[in-house]
Design brief:
51 residues, alpha+beta, single chain, 3 helices
C-alpha cells in the first residue's frame, strides 16, 4: 500500500493511517484518491473471486 501511495503521489503515512482507522472492507481508491468501501464501490467483487 505504501508503494502504491508513492506511485500515486500521495503521502503513504496518510493513506496507511486512514485505512488502519476504518473497519474491515475499507481501503484507498487510488484512482479517485479517496477512502472507500471497496466492496460497495465494486473495486473488490467477491463473486468474481469465488468459483
Amino acid at each position: 500500500m505504501r508503494q502504491m501511495a508513492l506511485n500515486a503521489g500521495i503521502s503513504p503515512d496518510i493513506v496507511v493511517s486512514a485505512v488502519a482507522q476504518e473497519s474491515f472492507g475499507y481501503g484507498w481508491d487510488f484512482a479517485n484518491n479517496v477512502l472507500t468501501d471497496l466492496v460497495s464501490d465494486g473495486i473488490i467483487d467477491p463473486t468474481k473471486v469465488t468459483r
